[in-house]
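Input record (one chain):
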Amino acid sequence: MKYNLLKAQREFLEIPHDYKLDVAVYQGGYGSGKTFAGSLLGILLCMKFPGIRGLVGAQTYTLVRDTTLQSYFEHLDNMGIDYDWSASAQVLKFKNGSEILFRHFDEPNKLKSLNLGFVEIEEMSDVPYDTFKVLLSRMRQSIKPEWKNFTYRIFGHTNPELQRGWIYKTFVENPAENYRFIIAPTTQNIHLPEGYCEELKKIYDEQYYNIFVLGQQSNVNAGLVVKGFGDDNLAEITYRPELDLHISCDFNVDPMCWVFAHRTDDKVFYFDEIAMEDTTTAHAAGEFLARYPSHKGRIIINGDASGDNRSCTSEYTNYVIIKKRFLEYGYEPDIRIKSHNPPIKNRVAAFNAKIRNAKGEVGLFVDKRCEKLLYNIYNLRYREGSSRIDVPSYQQIKQSRELKFLEHPFDAASYLVDFYWPIGL
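The corresponding structure, as predicted from the sequence alone:
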């Protein structure tokens, strides 16, 4: 059996480096040969390294069974390879001792006992980052002496993400040297029926076609809370100890999120942040003081108006706790907060207007050190068909810890903007 592989498929299969672990993502549009390439690679690894143990999975087992497993069967039959399939154990076994487990990833803790030589991930953008990290830790099968030039491999395939999620961050924005990102446009698949892509052009709008046919990274803003944030809003911002330093606070306990900024009459510059899990206001204040122990200018505290209320766990308000802590270090912070929080739609409108007003003027800048704030800017969304912000559920956060940082960093940053440049709606 001979295959005429596409350029992107060859790039996906072949390793261009000498690292002991290769991590690759094949991102393509509909019909770009993603699952075909992934299942072929899994079989080739099983044949080349007798006794290897692989894992193939997706977030749901239905996707594994109906898509990936069928592609494996087609390859095996076409190539005339003998195999045994156990439906009860969900294991594919080869005559040379190699085997592949087929699983769902909905309960990642159940994967922690596995020692593997390779992992294939179907529809990778649906899998939480925490699950991906668990799979990385399972690349520990003992290497047999006869396995020449062996490399542990994690490979996934996916449609483009509709937002800048963990795949974008890990494989595009800041990839390790052994991480590879392959884009495979549907238009390059010479094996598709003639006119296939032209028909898709008639069905989809231009933006959808660019994403799900050409495989381009999505720049979709639909549903995002923050609008219009672009490259001209990103900046390398130098902390200036002689200038006023604004701290804007959100007092959620897990996580507690503060942002630090300089400000002019018409611009704000976010240069750093705190995003601490399971903490207290006093500990967060201590973290700031450890980072900036010698500030010369004024320190101005903005933030959540409800932080000025006493709680059942303390005789002091959050702002009193901050002030007392700072006074111990010789700082006299100026507390500037509203008497009550405005509706969130007002804060959103003020934040978006400062990003870029109707004249195209940019008034808000964020340094890359503000990782969690940028995560919110690129990913915080409204619930579909509503004006309510889509806050992740407890169950979703259990599956992906990063989701707990949605909303709170944005709240902290928008309190500051709304205080100085409010918009009445």
